[in-house]
Amino acid sequence: MRLKIFTFAVLFMLTNYVMAAELSIPEEKTVIQFHTKLGDVTFAHAMHAGLSITQCTTCHHKMMPEDTVVKPCHDCHQHKSEETAPKTKKAFHTRCTGCHEYTVAGGQHAGPVKKKCRLCHIKPPKEQAK
To answer: Residue 97 CB: number of other CB atoms within 10 A?
Structure first.
């Protein structure tokens, strides 16, 4: 029994190592800042990409395996149009909180699930008057 558990653990670690090695997130995209009216949202892209529950297509849902360039979300999710895809705000809120809620329901730790804006949107500190 111990040999089976050990074998499974080694295979799991090797699979995660290979998957992480195949991820090619550009250096400037390992952490992404979204600037919004309510405050900046910091997205730990590399950390999310390394999770066992996600694949690139989880978020980059229009990406095809043969694609070499990932299109920015805003290319489809326009700020002012909902003709082809939901607005950026709606798409991000649905995708992010939905995944966090799903993960927590599965008994794992995840990011914010409460619909409190300030948990994700952080106002930069104001420069102090001199």
So the answer is: 18
